[in-house]
Amino acid sequence: MVKLIDKKLVFGKLPKRIEESNKATFGRVLNISGSKPYIGAALLSSISALKVGAGYVSLACPTEIVPVIASMAPELTFVHLKSDNNGIISSENTIDNLYSYNVVSMGCGITANDEVKKFVFYILNNLNKAQKVVIDADGINLLSNHKGEISLKNMVITPHPRELSRLLNVSVEEIVENREKYARITSQTYECITVLKGHNSIVTNGEKIFINQSGSSALAKAGTGDVLTGIIAGLLAQKLSPLDAAIIGTYLHGLAGDIAAADLTKYSVLASDVIDYLPFALKMVLSEE
């Protein structure tokens, strides 16, 4: 089954905003992201989760980059992580209140080495079944190097073709030519939700395939994938299923890019602009009512 993702489909799946609520009502996200070389990835993936409606986002990142991000995003809380001399997460870390978060997102800008792998696998091995997970970027790269060590069942992964190439041991060219096929294979193999990024991004659970109708070359910029990860995490925090969060998140991400491009041109849209234009994307979807 192949279905197009459009405004009408997304409107019907948007999480509701009830008035008798507080920040806990709309979920708690733990975002494991960032390193000294990739501070921006941590900021973008965290703020986008809040911007799409999550009630609370805590960023777990190396201690030395916390002051920089806190100065730009006072809405975030932080879990301070130990790091090596290069400002990359160390394997020594633990997170005491891991179960207090209903969503864990990870991978944006963490880099992929053995120390980070040990910490990421510690997290994944200590989650409970109720917690939802989004994995992107170096999180996927770490899994590619250690296939079979971690179950991805019911998790959302958001690879671009090169990351999927590493995960499946299939050439990038083959994946690009057969995107629906390899997205489906990934979800069937790992029992996860796959968002294969690119023009007309594909979302699948291994049975149903959804093809996104929003987005353009305006999104072909560093950092936009981090924004997508945060959007999906923020939607998961609001109690959507992994499949629905991936569908809505992919569409809103593309639509925000389209609206930004209409104002700024496709040349000039930055990842931070996609976050800034998310409210307009939401308003456009809500106008379906």
Structure write-up:
The model has no long low-confidence stretch (mean pLDDT 97). α2 runs parallel beside α9 (224-237), α5 runs parallel beside α6 and α10 (242-264) crosses α12. This protein has helices at 7-13, 39-51, 66-72, 114-125, 138-144, 161-168, 172-177, 179-190, 224-237, 242-264, 271-276, 278-286, and strands spanning 2-5, 28-32, 56-62, 77-81, 103-106, 132-135, 156-157, 193-196, 202-204, 209-212. The chain is globular and about 45 Å long. The chain is of the alpha/beta class.
Q: What are the SSEs and their pairings?
A:
Layout lengths: L1 E4 L1 H7 L14 E5 L6 H13 L4 E7 L3 H7 L4 E5 L21 E4 L7 H12 L6 E4 L2 H7 L11 E2 L3 H8 L3 H6 L1 H12 L2 E4 L5 E3 L4 E4 L11 H14 L4 H23 L6 H6 L1 H9 L3
Parallel strand pairs: 1-10, 2-3, 2-5, 3-4, 5-6, 6-7, 7-8
Antiparallel strand pairs: 8-9, 9-10
Helix pairs in contact: 2-9, 5-6, 9-10, 10-12
List keywords for this structure.
15% strand, alpha/beta, 289 residues, ten-stranded mixed sheet, 12 helices, 10 strands
Number of helices: 12
User: How much is the average pLDDT?
Assistant: 97
Shape: globular
Binned strand content: 5-15%
Largest sheet: 10 strands, mixed
SSE order: EHEHEHEEHEHEHHHEEEHHHH
Q: Based on helices, strands and strand pairing, what is the structural class?
A: alpha/beta
How would you briefly describe this protein structure?
The chain is an alpha/beta fold and 289 residues long. The protein contains twelve helices and ten strands.
